[in-house]
From TrEMBL:
SUPFAM superfamilies: DHS-like NAD/FAD-binding domain, Thiamin diphosphate-binding fold (THDP-binding). Residues 388-540 form the Thiamine pyrophosphate enzyme TPP-binding domain. Keywords: Thiamine pyrophosphate. The gene is gcl. It comes from the Bacteria. Transmembrane segments: none annotated. The keyword Ribonucleoprotein does not apply. Pfam families: TPP_enzyme_C, TPP_enzyme_M, TPP_enzyme_N. It comes from Streptosporangium fragile. The keyword Mitochondrion does not apply. InterPro entries: DHS-like_NAD/FAD-binding_dom, THDP-binding, Thiamin_PyroP_enz_cen_dom, Thiamin_PyroP_enz_TPP-bd_dom, TPP_enz, TPP_enzyme_TPP-bd. This is Glyoxylate carboligase. Residues 8-119 form the Thiamine pyrophosphate enzyme N-terminal TPP-binding domain.
Length: 576
């Protein structure tokens, strides 16, 4: 076996694990790894902030299903990565962050930029490890990929002391390969019990969480739903797991990102089969309301996730794809494919009548109108990226998604600034796809320096900015406190001009102030982005103090905009 620089072995492992792009910032403490990278086929994107690099790796991972990689030097590079690691852990996204470190002999001497990043990162990673010996290098990285992919996926941090990076190891890439990842099958008795409950329910729902998307289990989900004619809801992280134009689509329940008919459907259900969902508080709201009158089956690959928020009537441990496949197979053995009955018809009625308006012609523009135009203009293969704020809530309520891995959102951590670097990662992974980042004005400013990266590397995507010149979600949250404090941005009074900012980066931008101009602006931005190979901004100036529909429980959502005139008559009596 040949002795080679251990960082060359690491790069060989990265390539064999399917990594073709890494995001990072070089520095003195990580240069041996960079020396190995320059002779590889891996593309390196030099970001402007390590947090941006982690979010770019996150976006790359979400659309490929593979492990994203971000590299940084020591000290503040690692601490800057913590938000990205937390985001990936919260949303079950496999990424590996690699940090340089001072030589081992200097770690106890307060050397320049030496920090115990392993201990700092442990709470927000599945595994945080410092490489101690050069001979361990390829094997630690192999294990990192295995851990990142296994069970509930998530992030890993590997810290590389400089003297270790300069070492050598025995390694032959011809006889090495990725470590196997176990796909946990469900126990057969649990599958039978779940199908018993599903077939015995009168008004069952399947709730598809982000785990269905991560597991690429959308085909198995659809097979089970169609065979038994069980309506399907999605969580925010699960958008795209089930096509929203399907007759069995039952909307989205929640206290923020929700549809009116989705909440109504869940409240009328008598059984919920939740797959790969964590029952986040902004989905469930008040748990007493959420649980009342229905039983729950919880399927999750992570055993300790079951019962964490509330105790289900049945817990099933297993990977979403084999679990759904097993349930579909069990259902097919027991019964012929069912025809749509009274319950799917009720879902269709709720969907037809419990709507929200998005056809406003008002000036200033009402935000729902923006999402109507987005839905009308972009096709089903477009990949959307959005983060946190009122614009994310409107997006979840109004945007339609038809395919998996086409709607990406940082669901649990909600870091502002996520959209631009994540969109960059998506476009690097799929250059052929149309990529659109839907951002708020304040979130855009968190990591707007990454626009320079997209411009430098000619990474084209469209940014649709919903600009209300406010910290809008916090302004709305302040209403019960009878205050409007520290949230007014009001750029027109000597503040930032986003169009000029984009132009300073060498990128096109256009501002829209009337609803009739939105479609033309989207068409212009899409064409201009592809022609110039640059990010392009459409800044939509919306009503400053518009509020999104939300509440404390599924049955107490406050609507702030006028509703369509056609309303549902009386609720159905299901007692007969």
């Amino acid at each position: 076996m040949k002795r080679i620089p251990c960082m060359e072995a690491v790069v060989a492992v990265l390539e064999s694990e399917g990594v073709d792009t890494v995001f990072g910032i070089p520095g003195a403490a990580i240069l041996p790894l960079y020396a190995a990278l320059r002779h590889s086929g891996i593309r390196h994107i030099t970001v402007r902030h390590e947090e941006g690099g982690t979010h770019a790796a996150d976006g790359w991972a979400r659309v490929t299903g593979n492990v994203g990689v971000c590299i940084g030097t020591s000290g503040p590079a690692g601490t800057n990565m913590i938000t990205g690691l937390y985001t990936a852990l919260a949303d079950s996204i496999p990424i590996i962050c690699v940090t340089g470190q001072a030589p081992r002999a200097k770690l106890h001497q307060e050397a320049f930029q030496a920090v115990d990043i392993v201990e700092i990162a442990k709470p927000v990673t599945k595994w945080a490890v410092q490489l101690k010996e050069p001979a361990q290098a390829p094997w630690v990285f192999r294990e990192a990929f295995r851990i990142a992919r296994s069970g509930r996926p998530g992030p890993v941090l590997i810290d590389l002391p400089l003297d270790v990076q300069r070492g050598t190891c025995l390694y032959d890439p011809e006889i090495d390969a990725p470590l196997p990842v176990e796909v946990t099958p469900p126990a057969a008795p649990a599958v039978r019990a779940a199908v018993d409950m599903l077939m015995g329910a009168r008004r069952p729902l399947i709730l598809a969480g982000g785990g269905v998307v991560i597991a690429d289990a959308h085909a198995e989900l659809r097979e089970l739903a169609e065979h038994l004619q069980v309506p399907v809801q999605v969580t925010l992280m699960g958008k795209g797991a089930f096509p929203e134009d399907h007759p069995l689509f039952a909307g989205m329940a929640g206290i923020q990102t929700q549809t009116r008919w989705g909440n109504a459907a869940l409240l009328e259900s008598d059984l919920v089969l939740a797959v790969g969902a964590r029952f986040g508080d902004r989905h469930t709201g008040d748990l007493e309301t959420y649980r009342r009158g229905r039983r729950f089956i919880h399927v999750d690959i992570e055993p300790t996730q079951i019962g964490k928020v509330f105790e289900p009537d049945l817990g099933v441990v297993g990977h979403a794809r084999p679990a759904l496949a097993a349930m579909a197979g069990e259902a097919a053995r027991r019964t012929k494919a069912r025809h749509p009955g009274r319950w799917p018809a009720r879902i269709a009625e709720l969907r037809r009548t419990l709507l929200r308006r998005d056809d406003f012609d008002d000036v200033p523009i009402k935000p729902p109108r923006v999402f109507r135009e987005i839905n009308d203009f972009y096709g089903p293969d477009t990949t959307f990226v959005t983060a946190i704020g009122l614009y994310q809530i409107w997006s979840g309520q109004f945007q339609k998604t038809f395919l998996p891995r086409r709607y990406l959102v940082c669901g649990q951590a909600g870091p502002l600034g996520w959209e631009v670097p994540a969109a960059m990662g998506v476009k690097c992974a799929h250059p052929e796809r149309q990529v659109v980042a839907v951002a708020g004005d304040y979130s855009f400013q968190f990591l707007m320096e990454e626009i320079a990266v997209a411009a430098q590397y000619r990474i084209p995507f469209v940014i649709v900015m919903i600009n209300n010149e406010y910290l809008g979600l916090i302004r709305q949250a302040e209403i019960p406190y009878d205050m409007n404090y520290a949230v007014d941005l009001h750029y027109g009074e000597g503040g930032i001009d986003h169009v000029k900012l984009m132009e300073a980066f060498g990128c096109p931008a256009r501002r829209v102030e009337v609803p009739g101009d939105i479609a033309d602006a989207l068409a212009w931005a899409t064409a201009e982005s592809e022609r110039e190979r640059l990010p392009v901004l459409v800044e939509v100036m919306v009503e400053r103090e518009a509020n999104a529909a939300m509440g404390a429980s599924l049955d107490a959502i406050k609507e702030f905009e006028p509703l369509p005139r056609q309303e549902l008559a009386l609720a159905i009596d299901w007692s007969d």
